[in-house]
Amino acid sequence: MNQQVLPPRKPNGGLITMPFIIANEAFEKVASYGLLPNMIFYLMRVYNMGVTRATNIIFFWSAATNFMPLIGAFVADSFLGRYLTIGIGSIASLLGMILLWLTAMISKASPPPCNQLTHNCKSASPAQYTLLIFSFGLMSVGAGGIRPCSLAFGADQLDKRDNPNNDRVLESFFSWYYASAAISVLIALTGIVYIQDHVGWKVGFGVPALLMFASALLFFLASSLYVKQKASKSLFTGFAQVLVVAYKNRKLALPLYNSSRYHREKGSEFTVPTDKLRFLNKACVIKNPEDISTSGVVSNRWNICTIEQVEELKALIRVIPMWSTGIMVSINISQSSFPLLQASSMNRHITPSFEIPAGSFGMFTIITITIWVVLYDRVIIPLASKLIGKKVHLDVKLRMGIGIFFSSMAMVVSGIVEHVRRRKAIDQGLLNNPQAVVNMSAMWLIPQNILSGLAEAFNAIGQTEFYYSEFPKSMSSIASSLFGVGMAIANLLASVVLSSVDNVTRSQGKESWVSSNINKGHYEYYYWLLAIMTFINLIYFLVCSWAYGSCVNKVAKTSNEENGLEEEKSSVPGTPHRVLLS
């Protein structure tokens, strides 16, 4: 009896999975980014909150959304794997958006409407407030599951080391991934915001919920096609092990230049640990030879670590001062509520029948980032290299400093525009009517958005490149997470700054600088305070940059030149920057 031979099963992964993964990320971004711009209006007009409380809630929500990806990456690497983490994140985001949509659909889910000028507004009840915050929390959990894993999960499907075109396939995927991210944010800042402005909150929140449903559905539809790699040890666990073992061995004397006393991985470039942060070196000292087998396997990682683990933690600790200099820039980036209130009180008409939604002015920042990245990589650097006759590259730390300067200038210009807008509002008799539109074009807000875009293009991209160049390859996940952690801390500090300004400036019965009545407040003073803080931060950056010394790539270049080596000339100098809009 002839036995039928079945054809070999096609391996999982490949290009067939790309539409599902990219669509999952793209729809999630359109949905989540489409909710943020107008949220200040929703909290003030539907939940009857003042501008300070509403802005602080948005700060806390943004902080959670920026911090959760770090936890999501740890959970994916250590326990669940990327597939399950993305799946759970998609479901959490969907539930959060449905709950937010229900706050608009069910009248009793929010306080009754009122006019804030009458000061008779009823606040949200504990149950109503809990429902709102719970929806924000679920969306932050969802972002924590999707955003740190989506790019790496897509790379898992295509990373075939035996394929000679592997690098080209991965590059193509990264290009499509980042292009879809940028397009998604632009759609969110225009299409979703326009729907909320012209159709209302019920449809404006319903559309993101539908998009998130499509995102989750498309991801799970291709479940049988994915390569699902299992979870492995996380870097965070390795960091904890170094600290614990170093503390255990705190009374142990360090061996002097004896490489045999240090535990290292096979084929390691290290023979002994570096002299910086020497107290951590005790974590890799071989105290008891029985802890390591003849094949080099450690019986208990909480008793001895490798030199590589120690040096990874040192690299992280060493960049922390430089990382902290970007927090002030992130505080300025997070100031989305006040420009929105400014735009809503200005003439936003392009034609007599069409006006730009107040929440869409952030698109000028995204457009500026995109244009600058293309010009820098494809025009400025190649042209400068051709004129000078050798490869030109702006030092990464220089770019970070330029970004801080642009961020300070963005706050200065924001304050000037607001000063002029407020003066016009008072001259036109609108002091007590914050809802009125001042006879001043909202196009005056574009310069501050351009400066903010340049600040982000220089500093944010520079930060990410700095981390990738200074960290070993094993820490690439940490490098991609550090900027998000900085944004999370910046959101919390922005809330502290805002609350402090509000409490100090409204003492003795005075109107707060950040009053809910934009015409009575002094938003320009708040902007200029941020500008001064950013300028002080620039000085702090210069000190940290001097203390840090030369970057790894600069040291390597200098070493090559000293050995008489020349870099290979390239027709397209510079490394293309890629911006992940997270």
Automatic annotation (TrEMBL):
Q: Where are the transmembrane segments?
A: 57-76, 83-107, 127-155, 176-195, 207-227, 356-376, 396-417, 478-498, 525-548
Any idea which UniProt keywords this protein has?
Membrane, Transmembrane, Transmembrane helix
Origin: domain of life: Eukaryota
Q: Which CDD domains match?
A: MFS_NPF1_2
Main localisation, per the record?
A: membrane
Instruction: Identify the stretch(es) annotated as Disordered.
Output: 562-582
Q: Name one Pfam family in it.
A: PTR2
The membrane-topology field of this record reads: Multi-pass membrane protein
Q: Does the keyword Ligase apply?
A: no
Which family is it part of? Belongs to the major facilitator superfamily. Proton-dependent oligopeptide transporter (POT/PTR) (TC 2.A.17) family.
- Protein name in UniProt: Protein NRT1/PTR FAMILY 1.2
What is the native source organism of this protein? Abeliophyllum distichum
